Amino acid sequence: ENRSTAPNGFRPNRESFDKLYRGEPAFEGAPASDTVPWDIGEAQPRLRELEALGAISGEVLDIGCGLGDNAIFLAARGHPVIGLDGSPTAVEQARTRAAAAGVQVRFDVADATELTGYDAAFDTVIDSALFHCLGADQQRAYAAALHRATRPGARLFLYCFAAGDVNGVEAAGGAVAEGTLRDTLGAAGWHIDFLGPTTYLANTAGFGSGTEELPEELRAAIPPERVATMRRMAERMAVILPLLDDDRVHLPFTVVHATRID
């Protein structure tokens, strides 16, 4: 885990995420925000579809649960759920949201690449935007950890950044190639039943700014292609934001449905 104050290609880590949830700059020189970009205050629409279709069964793991809205929704629908995240701040806020919603969900802090203490505990896993936050070695460890933490025949529903755009809106970076998903999951004992495009609902926080407000040293640390994306998105959002009825945008994602191979 990279704990330096300067961004390593802007790859997030548990410390930077915890700072975001506390409303602090994710790393030195970055602007602070009082809104987490993926906080929409409700479960993701794609997860609601899965639940309505009967795809969620048994003991459920919401891995990288963040503020807990997906887990809270599933618990309200009668599913036994555990939400795990690397950010203590996110876990505390998720517990507060669950209490406010009047549902019972267990939220705990855990390392997704290890999942110590959760062997053979789950029948369904929901990954709503965690996989793309990990480096290659972490992704392989994570896929293996999920296999250990699940039971024979368990299902994995994974959502991650994809290339391209939805109505001009691009993901923040770190699109995962199809080959990476197939190779990483396959090597860890997961059979991919479906892999294809989908969308992910986010709020507009962080999409309207480019790199000009960042310190020069920080800008220099950003990969050129990321700088180009940030500038392009700032230009596009200047046009898009006045047209929105709310502060929600859809991002290009890939969805994977996989089954644990015994």
Gist of the model:
By secondary structure, this protein is an alpha/beta fold. It contains 8 helices and 9 strands.
Describe the structure.
- It is built from 8 helices and 9 strands.
- The strands form 2 sheets. Strands 3-2-1-4-5-9-8 form a 7-stranded mixed β-sheet, with helices on both faces.
- Helix 4 links the parallel strand 2 and strand 3.
- The N terminus is likely disordered.
Q: Tell me the major beta sheet.
A: 7 strands, mixed
Proportion of β residues?
15-25%
The helix count comes to 8
- Identify the overall geometry: globular
Radius of gyration over C-alpha positions, nearest whole angstrom: 18 Å
Tell me the number of strands. 9
N-to-C SSE series?
A: HHEHEHEEHEEEHEHHE
Structural class: alpha/beta
Mean pLDDT: 88
Distance between the termini: 30 Å
In terms of quaternary structure, the protein is single chain
Helix content: 25-40%
Query: What topology, given as strand order, has the largest sheet?
Result: 3-2-1-4-5-9-8
Q: Which spans of ≥5 residues are poorly predicted at pLDDT below 50?
A: 1-9
